[in-house]
TrEMBL record:
Its cofactor is Mg(2+). CDD domains: dTDP_HR_like_SDR_e (cd05254). It comes from Erythrobacter longus. Binds 1 Mg(2+) ion per monomer. It comes from the Bacteria. This is dTDP-4-dehydrorhamnose reductase. GO terms for molecular function: dTDP-4-dehydrorhamnose reductase activity.
Length: 285
């Protein structure tokens, strides 16, 4: 099976390559290989690669900057997806597209189901929702949230850096969600492909926490394995204390039960995956 991975240099792209089944023939492209805003270039590259499956792990993810660059975000998060879908339509292939909790408005009091109504409240969320709209019934849509991986640009590594530099941190405590270890997400994606799945699925680690809760756990686990020497004071703050150009969903927990049923696997707790990631981070030096 020939699989093309876009966003190959990102956290998920690297995890997909590391966890790929041995039976898969992988091609991987990143921003240096193809400009996703160049329709002709992307179309030509897809024709050359001729994949049976595309896993689209590429995205414009600068949430705050998207408020001023919505056209650019739309070109990458939606227009490029339409081109991938068209290529798969012509070849009889399938697109696996990765989306986000930001397509929801965060007003729910319970975890979002795959078929819940979308109501994005940011430019980033709008462009990702637009990308979802191009998918066909036979494609796979996987929504996720709070993705992190060893060596990547993410909340976990930012916290570790700040904990080494500062005696006190303020972290938002009124935004609730669930982290996602990129390795677990990649494994789920390969599993859905192997099962011949189609439709919309959710994946994040088990549990629901605030960014503040996550920061406290990062500090505890990082100190235990020697990534940081001491735990600084971590204070809970509100979203209004830390204003950003883009509005974040206040509650964006994704219900992954359908995904777990299809794959027949367990829902790994977020802290267990955090521990595994931090061990990898330490090994990187």
């Amino acid at each position: 099976m020939r699989v093309l991975i876009t966003g190959a240099g990102g956290q998920l792209g690297r995890a997909l390559q590391a966890t790929a089944p041995g039976t898969v023939e992988i091609s991987a492209i990143d921003v240096d290989d193809v400009d996703l805003t160049d329709a002709a270039m992307l179309t030509a590259r897809l024709a050359v690669e001729a994949p049976e499956i595309i896993i689209n792990a590429a995205a414009y993810t600068a949430v705050d900057r998207a408020e001023e660059e919505e056209d650019l975000a739309l070109a990458i998060n939606s227009d490029a997806v339409a081109i991938m879908v068209e290529a798969m339509e012509q070849s009889g292939g399938k697109l696996v597209h990765v989306s986000t909790d930001f397509v929801f408005d965060g007003t729910s009091s319970q975890a979002y189901q795959p078929d819940d109504a979308r109501a994005p409240i940011s430019a980033y969320g709008r462009t990702k929702a637009a990308g979802e709209d191009h998918l066909r019934d036979q494609d796979i849509l996987v929504r996720t949230a709070w993705v992190y991986a060893a060596g990547g640009a993410n909340f976990v590594r930012t916290m570790i850096r700040l904990m080494k530099e500062r005696d006190e941190l303020g972290v938002v405590a009124d935004q609730i969600g669930a982290p996602t270890w990129a390795t677990g997400l990649a494994t789920t994606i390969w599993g859905l492909i192997e099962k011949g799945a189609a439709g919309t699925f959710h994946h994040s680690d088990a549990g629901e926490i605030s960014w503040y809760d996550f920061a406290v756990a990062i500090a505890e686990e990082a100190q235990q394995i020697g990534l940081i020497e001491r735990i600084p004071t971590i204070k809970p703050i509100t979203t209004s204390d830390y204003p950003t150009p883009a509005t974040r969903p206040a509650f964006s927990v994704l219900d992954s039960s359908t995904t777990r049923t299809v794959l027949g696997d367990t829902h790994t707790p977020w802290r267990e995956n955090l521990r595994a990631m931090l061990k990898e981070e330490k090994a990187l030096g």
